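Write out this protein's structure.
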Amino acid sequence: MIELLVVLAIIGVLIALLLPAVQAARESARLTECRNHLRQLALGMLNHHQRQGHFPTGGWGMAWPGMPERGFDQRQPGGWVYNLLPDIEAQDLHDLGRGANAGEQCQLSAKRLATPHGLLNCPSRRSAETWPTTERRAHLRQPRGTDPVFEVARADYAGNGGDVYPSAIDGPLTLEEGDSAFHWPNTRAITGLFCVRSQYSLNHVADGASTTYLLGEKYLPPDEYFTGADPGDDESMYNGFCVDTNRFGFEPPLQDTLALRKPQAFGSAHPATCNFALCDGSVQAVDYQIDADIHRAFCNRTDSDPLEP
């Protein structure tokens, strides 16, 4: 009996020693997969840029889903995730509702809002599934032009909105209002690549493609990965410009932290670094201890600052 207990104790010690190594190996694999997701998204954006002459538009605002018949320019209410779908092998998802009557369009739009895509989720955080909306979202602020939807697809990656946070908007009340330039705020102060009705190209990147963020991981507290309660994670990823799919660099990226809401910040579930895709399509791991001014410089496409991360 004593010998058996000794053997069991030794086995327990070996398991305790081996478990961290196994967990580290799994996280390393997840980190590699996450970086590959960002690389594929960045390459898709560059393909979009080649086809359309600009990066995907930021859309109209959080209350508007994508609409396939309205193209890829300022008339498109959907955000960058929606506009990127043809470039990440999801043309059919992008085109749901094209040519249908109004009732069918609303039904198919709701279907799209609840359809995940494997490239948009970090494996260290959550899988590509649908997650519930909150009561506020479900009953008070349903997206316009769609049937009610109570579970939606969400993204773990965000476009670079710059180093200045603009006011959040729901968007116009009607398509006619949205097509009018008089409805929209002045966006000259925007320093990133995405904002309402944005059509930025590489020509707007004064800093150089290799020193300007295009996309990055978004911050989210672990206790709200699956609830839809965080204000930076309560919309479908196909809606227009909002903090669900766009983040800002006025503070360094953060590691996901329980009970800490930072809906405007970049961040990650990874233990040491946050991943970013640059405008040249490359991917870099950025340390959480990065100097705040350097991080801001990489978020600002207009400052002509050649700082390195």
